[in-house]
Amino acid sequence: MKRVFAIITALLDDYCRSSFGAGAEHVKKYWILADSVIVPRPRMFPLIKPESLETMRPALIAAAKPTMNEPSSNHRISFLHAGLEFTAITAEAHRLKETAETSGTKPAPTTVSALMERRWQMTRAIFQTRPLAVNAALVAANDSTLNSAINRE
Question: What is the distance, to the nearest Å, from the Cα of residue 17 to the centroid of all Cα atoms in its chain?
Fold first, then answer.
């Protein structure tokens, strides 16, 4: 197992170094944090607590600073940050959905509308500026269960 871990660590080091330049160590920390705080769930949105995202965000902010003079590295970090922010707002929507399903009570319509409007505006901005950061078409195609669970259809 040590050999497998060493290989994975070497691959992560190489990926971060070659893709993120001076921000490599911070991006590596970001991926290690993501692996430790995001809990995959079969056929469900992963379990992501707000405080988990708050531990990941500073790593990307820190990674961006030393890459200000490395446009391609900085662009890649910005790409990761766009995905993180979209994940954060989507996780919030899924927490509303799961609370509604377990409690049998729909969230306040104003809460839902505000959240989903922010999410839509973010999706639109990402699609316009970094279309590969989030697969907007796939997200939209799979939103029906989310929308119906939080009473948005």
Answer: 21
CA angle 113/117/33 to nearest 5° reads 105
Helix pair 2-20, 24-37: axis angle to 10 deg: 130
Number of domains in the chain: 1
Cα distance between residue 83 and residue 126, in whole Å: 9
- pTM greater than 0.85 (yes/no): yes
Which residues are paired to 41 by β-bridges? 44
CA distance 20 to 53: 20
Question: Dihedral sign, CA of 9, 13, 15, 16?
Answer: positive
User: pLDDT of 53-101, one tens digit each?
Assistant: 999 999 999 999 999 999 999 999 999 999 999 999 999 999 998 988 8
